[in-house]
Amino acid sequence: MFDEYTYSELGAIFAMQGFAGISLFSVLLLMALGLAIIFGQMGVINMAHGEFMAVGAYTTYLVSTLTESYAPAFMPYYFFIAIGAAFMIAALLGYLAELALIRHLYKRPLDTLLATWGLSLIMQQSFRSIFGAREVSPTLPDWLMGSYQPTDMIDIPLNGMFVLGLTTLVTLGVYYLLYRSRWGLRVRATTQNRVMSGAVGINTKKVDRYTFALGCGIAGIAGAAFTTIASTGPTTGTLYIVDTFMVVVFGGAASLLGTIISAFSIAQAQSILEFFISGSMAKVYTLLGLVVILMFRPEGLFASKIRR
Amino acid sequence: MNFVYERLMGGKSGLTGFLILAAFIVVVLPVTLDIFRLNLVGKYLTYAFAAVSLVLLWGYGGILSLGQGVFFGLGGYGMAMFLKLEASSPENTAIQSTPGIPDFMDWNQLTALPWFWEPFNSFTFTILAILILPAAFAYVIGAAMFKRRVGGVYFAIITQVVAVILTVLIVGQQGFIGGINGITDLRTLKGWDITSDTAKYLFYFLNCGLLLSVIVASRFILTSKFGSLLLAIRDKEDRVRFSGYDVSNFKIFIFCFAAMISAIGGAMFTLQVGFMSPSFVGIVPSIEMVIFAAVGGRMSLVGVVYGTLLINAGKTLFSESFPELWLFLMGGLFIAVVMFFPNGLAGLWKDYGYHLTDKLLAGRRWIRAYMSNMVNRKVGGGA
Q1: Residue B305 domain flag
Q2: Do B156 and A113 touch (CB under 8 A)?
């Protein structure tokens, strides 16, 4: 399939598809970070994770619409407010979901899967009732439009670069929170030994609740980032949920580095293959490759060396 | 006799439940419903095959498969390919640029039948393929996963990914397998019109017979030593392994058997509905099958049939009149079943229904005693 292209063309194709893949990588990574916290640290299978992303996306849309009608002069800057709002609202909803639903199911991981699937159905229908079945997208500020052209053949969209920057910041933040703060210490202690953590005075229930809320909040940020590259509909979340689970499982459930590398390789494989074969076959090959690799390394790329 | 009673029917309560179900689907429904509704019920009952397979797999084995739709779809597509080839005889497709191949291939500029369609000209091969191919596929997945001790959550996610892969593949390969529209316009089986009312009745009863046989076969498995081992694996896998059993082989077997059951359901679906499409293969139908099993009672072979019927009837009813409410209701049902009724309808029946029948029986006994007492007294008074 490479025969009909010259080397310089191939280079340009790889560079451009690579940068296109970076947008996908950013969204996948943001989604997967939240899921890795919830699934990797808490063992909860959150099938509604995609819907929390959609909450973030719809919040961004709402903030954009409100700004446009009430404070048009503020348009260039609203996106930062939107990111914050997306995080807060998704985290708040996650907090409530944990309070009402998840905390009763910690001992039954397969049942969390069903309950959160139910939650995702309810959320999808709520989106449809509130925002309509049509896809919506916020008016993006001007500085997010356009592209940067280092050579004639290569064309790098600015929104991709912005999303990449945002993702880097969030990843660093998560790293700091989980591995360098006292709160992260408590989360990791609770994951490793819940009873013992409780015995040394950690409020494990509170830790669970905030961990879940944080994971959902990051999904909200993913939603805000998502609006810059595609439009949002009620079923947007379900499109990404399986891919996100694959990212987390492939990377090794409890490893931050594994999650980053796996999101990058999945996004790039998908994006570069898409140029040469049809999009659906690219997806088939990517997922098939992942399943085969997981059959040989069921614990993922970077497994934490803990005896179960 | 004892073998039939204890092993195939599961004792007194199992026999009662089985007979009531058989009477309900074989006698009550055909008598009360017109053929259109009955055909609809027949369609729902094909999902019950998948729900029964999930009782074995999930309720007793503790293995949650989110890919039963894959096997259902393989069975359905196997049957659909045979019927489609029959429907695409050169006489029927004379207006196409290449007569004798299915219409969607002609629309996609294919000029010859792909190699994997050829064997489906034979009915015997098709039946064998429906029974064996899904089980063989399940064997490949199961062997790869269970031998490496992948289980629980990871298994659920991998089976889900397999469902996604298959759906995307079918949708993407329009020319080879019909794409998003599926395989449609299936009219005859060996020259016999399958859209007639007679055929629909016949398929309905065939479907009931197969479903009841599958339930009996599953009961046989569950009441055998293998059934006890399955429960033991669900509850303490390591201990079973340390007792010297090869846990993975048991899991692989039950996964293959479950796949075969689901595939039979899929084939019956195609026969009764007259088409097959990727929307019965992917994530959503697969998870819906799990919810049928959960609502009916994941530990009850008979209960899941009622669960399937109830949810599908509700879905049809609600999506006809209040489409917005249906998803809320369905979502709420998922949550309620998991949080409040983990054993579903069968569990509710066990907790409350039994007392009801006991009370009724006790009431009858009390009345009988009272009556005979009265009679005695009268007789005594007269003398």
Answers
A1: yes
A2: yes
- B114 close to A (CB below 8 A): no
Pairing state between β B188-189 and A156-157: unpaired
**CB-based burial of residue A22 (10 Å sphere; 0-12 exposed, 13-18 middle, 19+ buried)?**
buried
Whether the CB of B283 is below 8 Å from some CB of chain A: the reply is yes
Q: Which of B327, B329, B333 to mutate to test the interface with A (most CBs of A within 10 A)?
A: B327
Q: Which residue of A has its CA nearest to B65?
A: A110
Q: Are residues B353 and B275 in the same domain?
A: no
Is the distance from CB of A230 to CB of A119 less than 8 angstroms?
Answer: no
Question: What's the total number of domains in chain B?
Answer: 2
Kindly state whether residues B301 and B377 are assigned to the same domain: no
CA distance B251 to B233: 9
- What is the ipTM score, two decimals? 0.85
Tens digit of each residue's pLDDT, chain B (383 residues) = 677 777 777 777 788 889 999 999 999 999 999 999 999 999 999 999 999 999 999 999 999 999 999 999 999 999 999 999 988 888 888 788 888 888 888 888 888 888 889 899 899 999 999 999 999 999 999 998 898 887 778 888 889 999 999 999 999 888 888 888 889 888 888 888 888 889 999 999 999 999 999 999 999 999 999 999 999 999 999 999 999 999 999 999 999 999 999 999 999 999 999 899 998 998 889 988 998 999 898 899 999 999 999 999 988 888 878 877 888 888 898 898 888 888 888 888 877 766 666 666 666 666 777 777 766 665 554 44
- Of all residues in chain A, the one with the smallest CA distance to B335 is A115
Q: Which domain holds residue B364?
A: 349-383
* Residues of chain B contacting A282 with CB distance shorter than 8 Å: none
C-alpha span between A182 and A195 (Å, rounded) = 19
Instruction: Tell whether B172 is within 8 A of chain A (Cβ).
Output: yes
